[in-house]
């Protein structure tokens, strides 16, 4: 009997916590939604797009943590005085973007993974900030040296050209997410110490932010050193990305090889028929 009573108590307690959490989230969402409706700068006449923005804002401001459940469609439509069709449409768009995930029969959740749209030329720092995460770099190397034959080929440089080399681990909220080795011609970046957390910020200041890039993605498993730096088991899945970025005049501005942790990074590309 005691076991039955305590099981009942625990499940009752869980229900209370869940109820409290859902009503707290409903209130946070409703407040953000109302704020957007009354914000003259928003100019968004469509309710489902306003709701989409409200959900995105509270996720990006980390008012809701990844993995948490969203209140049900019915509760949301009741709290926000919107039709269920509107709520469903708002949620569907965010599921498609990868910000929310749906598990059959279990409901809608804030996605755990970092989703990176592939067609925009953005930096690591921008991608993370967009997701409400704090980016940071830890450098192993920031030096100037002569280009290697492989780099010279990839960057279309002549032998002997000087390049700046950066080798670093990229963190989000103090969690290691990627290892990157970047090579930039010294004619563009004469002093690699100018790069603090973001390479693209430094290039922007020098008037040399990349305008176009070619990127190659490969799957692989992380070796001992990479796994140690990324705090995962040796042999874990990794995404190997090679990016060559160009300036408007066609000069290569960076050649970066990255290893992203396969367990938390998603690359999403929008495809068109023509
Ligand atoms: C991504 C790209 C790299 C690029 C980097 C710049 O990680 N894969 O090719 O060098 O962004 O990011 P940041 O400006 O944060 O250093």
Taking pLDDT < 50 over at least 5 consecutive residues as the criterion, the unreliable ranges are none
Strand order within the widest sheet? 4-5-6-9-8-7
Major beta-sheet overview: 6 strands, antiparallel
The overall average pLDDT, rounded, is 86
Hetero groups: 2-amino-2-deoxy-6-O-phosphono-alpha-D-glucopyranose
Shape: elongated
Summarize the structure in words.
- The protein is an alpha+beta fold and 274 residues long.
- It is built from eight helices and ten strands.
- The strands form three sheets. A six-stranded antiparallel β-sheet has the order 4-5-6-9-8-7. The chain has a two-stranded antiparallel sheet with strand order 1-2.
- Strand 1 and strand 2 (107-110) form a beta hairpin.
- The radius of gyration is 23 Å and the shape is elongated.
- The protein starts with a helix and ends in a 6-residue tail after the last strand.
- Bound molecules: 2-amino-2-deoxy-6-O-phosphono-alpha-D-glucopyranose.
- Residues 123-125, 180, 182, 198-201, 241, 243, 254, 256, 258 line the site of 2-amino-2-deoxy-6-O-phosphono-alpha-D-glucopyranose.
